[in-house]
Amino acid sequence: MSNAMRVGVLTGGGDAPGLNPAIKGLVYRGSQLDLEVFGLLDGWRSLLNPLPELLPLDREAVRRWDRDGGTNLGSSRTNPFRQLMEDGTTQDRSAEVIANITRLGLDAVVACGGEDTLGVAANLAQRGVRVVGVPKTIDKDLAGTEYTLGFDTALRNVSEVIERSRTPAGSHGWVQIVEVMGRHAGHLALWSGVAGQAHIILIPEHPFHYQRVFEILKDRLGHPGFTRGPSQRPRYAVIVVAEGARAEGGEMITLDDRHDTFGHVRLGGIGEVLARRIAAETPYESRAVILGHPQRGGPPSAIDRIMGVLFGARAADAVAENQFGKMASATGIAPVLGKISLVDVERYYDTERYHLKDSGM
Ligand code: F6P
User: Residue 15 C-alpha to ligand 1 middle, in angstroms?
Assistant: First the structure.
């Protein structure tokens, strides 16, 4: 009889490029360590099914997965500790998850996810479940690792849009606002704004003042009018605003009032609010675009392929070494914290210029 360890792998939360390379890394390294890997579909939700499906994943099955964006296992935002019931109440169904892991004969579970999915993993680990995490989120807001899968690809996607938004803005002479995901963290907004050379970057970690935004615009644009030629003042500006950014004394703007079972609301709309205020209170025309889910779309970047494969391989090592309650991280195998990390404003953010600190921008 084989002594192979049976490992279930799942992906939870928002999809992100880099997840499929991570699964390939897990399966390939796992094949050297006598791990037999099975896919669990749609995140933690799979383990709440009466009969969860196990998708056998061998080298042949995942051979091409490094090139795929999203997650080939599907994802959900399921929280087994607070499952929403039909009558609107929530129930702790973690015992079913634990029973299913035993029933399926899984020796370990590898959970790929962000704060929420790995928060569940950390709670299950405390109840004795043999779980290993792989950090993933385009928000890059997970404590305990320097990198989270998906961030680099999202950075590429967002920077490209910022770059492309300059020509219409320049041609028409308006202020283009680009609203970027990231939930409560400004990592994606800040670094894509720097890469795309936005003129103002607004992040959740530092509430902004409308008047200050208007002043910075005036510094750049002066009075509106027709200007042309290399020596003339610019006639457009690009503002990157994180979806979680808010004005001092104001609230974060949400798409609706609903909270998911992790307690999150869906953010969105601050870009449009800002555009209206600029149009109403300054001489400048303004347009806003919400980038939405395509930020997470497309094939993984080179960095996400590399980090995915490395994280997956380290997760296989952690399982083989019985290092449970841990996750792969940019610096090796680290504890699963399931907590968020925000932009270090003191270090990186100029709170006067609303831009990268000490960069002259
Ligand atoms: O966490 C990733 C993320 O894309 C956030 O940046 C964003 O706020 C959220 O997911 C969007 O949630 P959903 O994919 O459920 O619309």
Answer: 9
